[in-house]
Amino acid sequence: MATHNAFYAQSGGVTAVINASACGVIEACRRHDDRIGKVYAGHNGIIGALTEDLIDVSQESDEAIAALRHTPGGAFGSCRYKLKDIETHRAQYERLIEVFKAHDIRYFFYNGGGDSADTCLKVSQLSEKLGYPLTAIHVPKTVDNDLPITDNSPGFGSVAKYIATSTREAALDIASMCATSTKVFVLEVMGRHAGWIAAAGALAGEGEGEPPHLVIFPEVAFDREAVMARVDEAVRKYGYCVIVVSEGAHYGDGTFLADSGNTDAFGHRQLGGVAPTLAGMIKQDLGYKYHWAVADYLQRAARHLASKTDVEQAYAVGKHAVELALAGKNAMMPAIKRVSEAPYEWAIEAAPLAEIANREKFMPKEFIREDGFGITEACRRYLSPLIQGEDFPPFENGLPKVAKLKLAKVERRLPDFTL
User: Fold this and answer.
1) Per-residue model confidence as pLDDT tens digits over 75-117
2) 208-255, pLDDT tens digit by residue?
3) Catalytic residue selected from 56, 115, 118, 144
């Protein structure tokens, strides 16, 4: 069979293990050099394809590619750039096909979340309309764990491990000082509409009275009076209160507790600042001394504390994406299937992008405690396997080693294109 080139790109917020997926894709392509020639990476995601800003991955050594498995961030640059509908922005899609034709690219691997799945699906549809033989496969990634069909999303397990660990460690700090100092600690975590990361914080405690004492989910409307009552109860009963709150916490009318009033490139409301907002309420209503923290980028970049399960799954979806493409599958995504819970076993199955793009998976009701401030045992059984195992990166001079790539650029063959 003829040999053609492949394109790989990263999209959206990066994770501690997205480069493990890149490693899986690239190493699988190299094992199939009878079918796949060069792998080109888009510099800064899909923007790299539109502007013909391509990286020649064949210039990287096997050792450098292997090192991606333990390197956080997006090695080739990611972006928040959503392709609009085909009818009104047809020129962008046609430009993609022109670039692919110019570089004999027949395999398209896009590594991202729900919006990226939508982009991958649209690229597949247009290539079919234009009669260009392109196989498009979406490689799942999102710390929010909100992709449908797949049991969990690569990137989430490591964030869950980091948040659960940080909650437990910070709680010990507060407990040791609460008699004469801080009474309340608030940890803000990511999660716009889905409370999966906040739920992971609840893994820090295993019994009655153990922190966190409250988890505030986007799936449960925020009731200030009820929250304050629970905070006060915890402080009086245990001497202190630890709270994990999702950035997407909102009132019954849908208004976010912390809304900057801006939107990102995907059209999502820009959030952040719910921790100080909530802490301010506690000070105003209860008068307790507080501290707050925002996990922010730390939670998604903490490769030093990555879940071994997460690393293995991230690599596997990259590898299987290539296998799906070579098997002639198109507009598909390798999804994780939970085969068994005890012992935990998983497998990869193909899922159609039409059932994934622009859809979100929220915390099911049976995972949220009846009072709305914690997780159920069913949720604990779901989350626990995802944070298991350690996959420490190699260290040098006391710091984790990361991949050092050449990022050699491919010579442009087409005129410039304005986004």
Assistant:
1) 999 999 888 787 888 899 999 999 999 999 999 999 999 999 9
2) 899 999 999 999 999 999 999 999 999 999 999 999 999 999 999 999
3) 144
Residues comprising the binding site for substrate? 142-144, 190-192, 247, 297-300
Annotated binding site for diphosphate: 13
DSSP state of 152: S
Cα–Cα nearest to 117, from 92, 95, 149:
149
- In the structure encoding, which two tokens stand for residue 94, read together? 């046609």
Within 327-376, residue ranges assigned H as helices are none
Cβ proximity of 241 and 235 under 8 Å: yes
* Other Cβ atoms closer than 10 A to 253: 6
CA-wise closest residue to 94 among 48, 132, 44, 135: 132
- What is the rounded distance in angstroms from the CA atom of residue 281 to the CA atom of residue 287? 9
- Binding site, by residue number, is 13, 142-144, 190-192, 247, 297-300
Query: Is pTM beyond 0.85 here?
Result: yes
- Domain positions in the chain: 4-141+304-357+391-400, 156-301
Amino acid identity for residue 60 in this structure: E
Concerning whether 144 is annotated as a catalytic residue, the answer is yes
**Predicted local distance difference test score (pLDDT) of residue 262:** 45
pLDDT at 174 over 70: yes
Query: 156-301 belongs to which homologous superfamily?
Result: Phosphofructokinase domain (3.40.50.460)
